[in-house]
Fold each of these.
Amino acid sequence: MIKVSILVAVYNGARFLPVCLDSLCGQTLGDIQIICIDDASTDDTPRILADYAARDPRISVLRLATNQGQAVARNEGLAHAEGAFITMVDADDYLAPDALQKAWNALQADPEADSALFSLMLHHDDSHTDTPFPLRTTQQRFTGEEALLEMVDWHIHGYMLVRAEVHKRWPYDTTCRLYSDDNTARLHCLHSRHVILTDGIYYYRQHEHSATHHVSVRHFLHLSAGVALKEALMREAAQGHLQHPDRVLNRLEVHRWSVFIGCYNYYCRHRARFTPAEQQEALGIMRRTLPLIDGNRIPWSFKWKPWFYPFGHFAVFRFFMALRHLLPHGK
C-alpha cells in the first residue's frame, strides 16, 4: 500500500534538487511514491532526475514537452498519484527525515482529519539559519471552514498532506502560473472534514532565485491569483459549501487589498529594474484588479487613511499613494 504520494514539479532546479530528493528518499516512512515532473527544464535537471530514478524505484519521472508552469506540471503528476494521501514539495525545499511519518501517524490517530499541515520552517540560505513560520493561532485542529478562514490571510500556511479523494477532486488551479498551490490548498481545507497541525517539519528555502522571491514582474500574478480565489470562493458560497460566507469573503478582501498595496509599493521600489514592457504589464494587472476589490467588505478600521481607501479608479489611487510619500515618514 502506498501511503503518501509526493509531487515534485521542477523547472531548471538542478541547484537544489539533490537536497530535495535526498530528503524524500531518506524518509522514515518507506511506503511512498515520489512523482517528479520536469517542466521542460534546460539545465541539468533531467540528468539528476534520471540518476535518482535509477537508484530508487519509488521515483517516477514525467517530462513536459514545453514549459507550462507549476499548476499544469503538478496536475500531470496528480493523475499518476496512487497514495492514500498526497502532498507536494517544491524542488528547492526539503523535508525532515521523519516529516511524513509524523504527519501520517497524526492522520491515523484522527480518522476524521482529511488534511495535515506540516510544521513549516523557513530556511534562510544567506545566513544558514532556520526560523519557524509565524503561526497566528494556538488552535491545533480545525473544521474545514475554520482552516480556510485562517489560511485566507496566512494565519496558517498551506503545506500539508491531503486525502487523495479530496486532492484529486480539486486539482491545482491553472488560471495562474504562480500561486496556484495557495488557492488549491484553501479549497482542500474547505472540503476537509478536519485539518490538523503536525510536528513533521517542511523546510521552505528562502533564496533570491526562487520564483516568489526573485524580483520579477511575475510578482504581480499574486493579484491575478487573488481574483481567481475570490471567484472560486464565491462559487463555493453559491453552492452552499460555506456556512459563514461573508466572514470568509470579508477577510479575503482585506487580504487582497493588503496584497494590492504591497504590490504597488513593490512596483515603486523595483520599477527601474523592469523593462518598459514589464512596467506596462505590471500596471495593467493592477489597473484591472483594482475595480474588482469590494471596498464594502473592508472595515473602516483598515481604510480610514486616504491611501488605504480602496478607490476604484487606479489614477486616483496612484495620486494618493504619491501624496503619501510626500508626507514626513510617509504618514
Amino acid sequence: MKKIVKTNAVIVGVFLLLVGFLIAGLIYQMNYKKTDVLQRESSDGQFVVEMQQIGEPAFPFGPVSGRFLLKRKGKIINQLKFTVSDDGAGLSYNIPIFEWREDCVKIIVSGSEQEDMLYTLYFDGTNNSEKAKGYREENKEQSVEKKPEASQSVQEETGDAEESVIGETITLSSEILTYYMSLEPACSYVQGDGLEYRLVAVDRALGSSFYVLVGTLDGESCDFVNADPFNGSGGEARWLTFIDEELGFACLAKSAGSYGHLYCTRDGGESFEMIEYPEHEVFLTNGASFNPFVMPEVIYKEDGLLYLEVGQGADGDYYGEDGFCHGRYASADRGKTWEFVETFAVE
C-alpha cells in the first residue's frame, strides 16, 4: 500500500514539475524572450542598431515591448527600452524611421494607438525619448529612405542626403522575411528579368489593410523594398504594375471599393506618391453633374503615351450612350499630368 502511495506521489510530482516547466516556458515566451526584428548599419560600418522584441504583445490588443541596441564594431555602447501600442501588433509590423547623425542615431517609432515617439541614442552612451510631433516635417529633407537592389542584401545609399546624415543599411531578420514570403500578396507584378514585386498586407485596422513592398527573384526568399508604399494610408491594394524598371503604378481602394487612389513610383518602388488626374463631369437630365470615374483600373503604354482607365467603383451606376462606361485618360509626361480622352463602354 505504501509503495502504491509513494508511486502515485512520484507521478504527481513529475506531473507538477512538467506543468511548472510549461508555465515557466510560457511566461518566458510572453514576457522575456528577445526576438531579433531588424538591424541598421551606418555606411562607414562603425555603428549598428539592432531592434529586438521582448516577449509578446499584451493580450488581446495591448502594447508590445522592445529595445534598441547600439553597437560599435560589435560592442554594445548604448541600449534603450521602449513600448509600442499598435492594436496588438508585434514589432515585425513596425518599421521605424532611422536617421544617422554625427554624434547619434535618431529613431522614430509609430503605433496606431499612440503618438509618434523619437528615441535618440548618442554614441557617448546617453539617450533620451520624446514625442516626435513635427519632427518628420521639420527634418524631411534629411531623411534617408533608399531602395535596395532586389537581388542583393537590403541596403540604402546615401544619395544627396545632408552632410550630418550618414548613409545606412537596413537588414530585416530572416524570420521576418520568411514571414513576408509566407503571406499571400494582395497583388504583384513580375518584371522582364524575373524580379517579382509583391504588395503584402502586414496589418489591418478598421477594415483597412496596411502594406509593405518586397521583391523576390526565386519565389522563396525576398528582399525588403518599402516599409510603407502608401505613405501611412490604409485600404485595399487592387493592382500593381510597372512600365519599366523605375516607373510603376498602384491602386489603393478606399471605403469598400467605392473609390480609389492612384500611386506612382519613379525609383523602382523606393518611394511612392499619390497622383491626381482631372475629374470628368457628366450631366444628368435634371441638370446636376458629378464625376463617375473614381476607381483607377489599369495603366498601359501605347504609341509613346500612357493610358489610364478609370472605373466607377463599387457604387457606380452611370450609363452613357453605349451603356455602362469607364473613362480613359492619357499622359505624355510619364504620368505626371493626365488629360481626359474619352468614355468607353464596358461589359
Amino acid sequence: MKTEIRERKELAVDLMEKLGIYKPYIKEFAENGDHTCFYENFAGFWVYQDKQLFNKMAEIELKYNCTVYAITHEITKFGECYSFLIVPEDDEDWENLVSKQDKYFFAFAYVWNKTYEPDSEFGSIIVQSFGGGIRRVG
C-alpha cells in the first residue's frame, strides 16, 4: 500500500536508531525535512551543505517517491558512488529495509554511480556502524 511521507519518515527514524546513528542527527532528521546526513567513513555531514548532493537526493525522492534517511559516500574500483538509504513508498517493501547479521547491516539503497550513471541502481548494500556514523563496506 502506498504511504504518506510522515509514515516513511517515522520508519526512517526507527531504522536510523537500529543502525546506531548519532542521536542528534536522528533528532534533526525527525524535526527538519532536509536535515539528512551523508557519511564519509563514519563522519556525518549535512546534505544541505553540498548543493549537488542535496539536489540529487531531492531528485531521487521525487522520481521514486521515497524518503532518503542517510547517504554514504565511497570511491570504488567501479566509480564514485553515493548510497542513498531509503524508505520506499510501498509499505509491502518495508519488512527487510535494514537487517543485522553479526556486526554488519544489510540496507536497501539506491546507489548513484556518479562516475558512470548507467550503473546506478537499487539494491542491498552492507553497512557498518561505529561511533554514531555508518559506512558502506559491501
Amino acid sequence: MDERIKKIKPLLFGGDINVYSVARAFHEEYGLTSDVYSKYFTWPVSNSSIIRLHPNVDNDKQETFLKAVCDFANANKENTVLLIGCGDSYVKLISENLGKYPDNVIAPYIKADLINTLIHKARFYELCDKYGIEHPNTFVYRREMGEDFDLPFEAPFICKPSNGVMYWEHPFEGQDKVFKAKTRERLLEILKAVYDAGYTDSMIIQDFIPGDDSFMRVLTNYSDRFGKVKMMALGHTILEEHTPHGIGNHAVIINEYEPELCNKLKDFLEALGFVGFSNFDIKYDQRDGKYKVFEINVRQGRSNYYVTGGGGNVAKCIVEDRILENEMPFTILDEEKLWRVIPKAVALKYANAGYRDKIRDLEKAGKVTNSLWYKPDMNLKRILMFAKGQLGHFYKYHKYMR
C-alpha cells in the first residue's frame, strides 16, 4: 500500500448511517479506522471496531467544532487528516472555517457562499432556471404575504422550508421534513405552525408530482479538486421511509443507468465550479416524461453506500483525487445492484408490485447490500442493535403505510 494512504486519518462528523457508510468505505478499501465526532452515542457509530467515537452534544457548535478539528490535527501532525461532514450543519461548519485548519487537514469542500446558495432551496431553484434544470412548479412564500397570495397550480401542495438548518432549530408539534397539504386551508395551517415556532426564512410551496416512491431517483456525484465531475451513480428509489421525521429517506434503491440525465447535471455542476460530493433528489414526472430535481445536498447522502456497493467506493474517490492526486476517468456507474436498510420481507411487502420480482432476482443473485451489515464489524452488541432496528421497520411500515 502507498505510504501516503497509510498516513490518512479520516475525521468524520455526524452520527447516522451516512457516517457509518463512509467509515465502512474507508475500512473496506484501505483498512483504515475513522475518528467520528458525533453529538450522541447513536447506534450506527457505537460499539464499532472501525470507528473511534468522540461524542459531544456541542460538536455541531462553531467553537467546539473548530477546536476538535484543530486539536485532532495537531495530535496527528505526521498524518493527513481527511475532514468529511455527514450532515448539512457540519458541511456548513467545515466550509465556513476553510483557511483556519492546520496544514495537514484536507477538506474537500467549496466555499461557504456557494454552499449557502445551493442548500437554500429558493436560491437553488433560481440557479436551476438559469441553467435549464427541470424542477417542480414552485412558489416561494414569505411570512409577510400572510394569506393574500395566489398559487399557479392546484392542490395537493408540497410544502417545505427553504432553509433546512434553521427549520430544525425551531421544533414544534407535528414538525415534518416535508408536508403534503390536500387543501389550501391545510397549507395555511402548516405555514402558521412553522412561523409561530420561530422560523423566519421563506417556505417552498410546490406542485405535487404524482407517483409513489418508485418514481424517485437519487444521483450521487464526485467532483475533483479542479471542479470536474469524475463519478456519478444514479439510484432508482424503490421505497422510502414513511415516519414523520424520516419521510424522504431512502430505504430500497436499485442502481440505474441514465446517461442523458447524468450528463445534464454534470454540466450544471461543472458550470458552478463545484468540488467534492453532491447528491440530487429527483422525481420522474409521468405527466410530461421529465425528471424534476427537488434539491441538492452538498455532500454524500445518508444512503451513500448504494454508491460504494455499486462499485464506486466513496472513500476511494477522495483518496485518488486529494491524496494520490491521480487523474480520474469520468465514470457513470452502470452495474445493477440492490441496496436496502430494511428487511427483505418489508421491502417485498411495501414496494411497488412492479419491482418485487426485480428485488427477488437481485437478492437471489447476491447483488444486495445493507449499509449497516458489515461482517468484519458485527460483534454481539452490533448484531443485537441491528436486529432490533430491522424488526422496528415491520412496526413502522405497518403504522405509516396502512
